[in-house]
Design brief:
heterodimer; A: three-stranded antiparallel β-sheet; B: 235 residues; two-stranded antiparallel sheet; globular
């Protein structure tokens, strides 16, 4: 079982890296892009001792307390 | 009065802070390894600049989990004075001792240059030897110094007179051009509600000798020393 955690900047928080990436992508000739926001992705391999609900709870706590900074970031957890 | 300088793996301004306390403040000072937890003999603790834990995850995010940080929280709650400089400011925000966060500079670059900051209040243990509106020339050296916070926090900081330093021009004017990193409301340094915890991005410890291009940082350490001396006289 794996926990996947996506951490993204909250809407409204400036993302200068995303802007720079968007600029580069546009230089490559891609059009029609309204915005690019950069985030982080964590893949947490679980050893199988937790059931799905406990795994979700653990990963959510990790996301909230370590992987994201709640002042500027949101997170999303997937278990599979 | 006794000072401590906390050392994380990756701290690199710890010796500068130590030097300033021992040479310019003239008081005893120890290095405190991040695994130590006993702060009972200290009156003030400095969290120095650097790249604790290589800035992995987010600047200051992993240092928050070092054993010494629980002690720093207790120390601050007891009224001990805590000064976080640069990475130290980032750590204090991550640890929840100061509100807001420091994100990537507006223009993405690592900025290493002298800037001007305006003293916005002298009602703190760290600025009581300064004058409101006086302009200090201090170096900055950071990639994540762009201070952000929500509207409510900003309003609270302003209302409680907790914005201590703002980036400004040489004459003290706050324009967008004098904001090196995009910080909200030109904020360069803030304190907590109780006013005993200060975080700032500029490096006063690197500006205490004319030889280094500026000695303006000295008054911040002198203020703290004056505060501690007054405390010692009271008790």
């Amino acid at each position: 079982m794996k926990a996947k955690v996506y951490v993204t900047l909250k809407p409204g928080v400036l993302d200068p890296q995303g802007k720079a990436i968007q600029h580069s992508v546009e230089l490559l000739g891609f059009n029609g892009i309204a915005d690019i926001r950069q985030g982080k992705y964590f893949e947490i391999a679980l050893d199988g001792s937790l059931d799905q609900a406990s795994a979700r709870e653990a990963a959510t706590r990790m996301a909230r307390e370590v992987l994201s900074n709640p002042v500027i970031e949101d997170y999303r957890v997937e278990i599979e | 009065m006794k000072f401590g300088v906390i050392v994380f793996p990756g701290s690199n301004c710890d010796h500068d802070a130590y030097h300033v306390i021992s040479k310019h403040v003239g008081q005893p000072v120890d290095f405190i390894w991040h695994r130590d937890t006993d702060l009972s003999s200290y009156d003030a603790v400095i969290i120095p600049g650097g790249f604790s834990y290589g800035d992995y995850l987010r600047a200051g995010a992993l240092a928050r989990f070092s054993p010494v940080m629980n002690s720093v929280k207790e120390f601050a709650a007891r009224g001990g004075f805590v000064l976080g400089i640069c990475n130290g400011f980032q750590i204090l925000c991550e640890a929840g001792l100061l509100p807001g966060a420091l994100i990537r500079n507006r223009d993405l670059h690592f900025i290493c240059e002298h800037v001007h900051v305006r003293v916005e209040t002298t009602e703190t243990p760290f600025t009581n030897q300064l004058m409101i509106g006086s302009v200090l020339r201090l170096p900055i050296a950071h990639a994540e110094g762009n201070y952000v916070c929500d509207d409510q926090t900003l309003e609270e900081l302003a209302r409680e007179d907790r914005i201590i330093f703002r980036y400004c021009g040489e004459g003290g004017e706050t324009t967008d051009d004098s904001n090196p990193n995009g910080s909200r409301d030109q904020i360069a340094g803030i304190c907590n509600h109780e006013r005993n915890v200060l975080g700032l991005m500029p490096h006063p410890e690197r500006a205490c000798e004319d030889l280094l291009g500026s000695a303006d940082g000295r008054d911040i350490f002198r203020s703290l020393a004056a505060t501690l001396a007054a405390h010692a006289a009271t008790f």
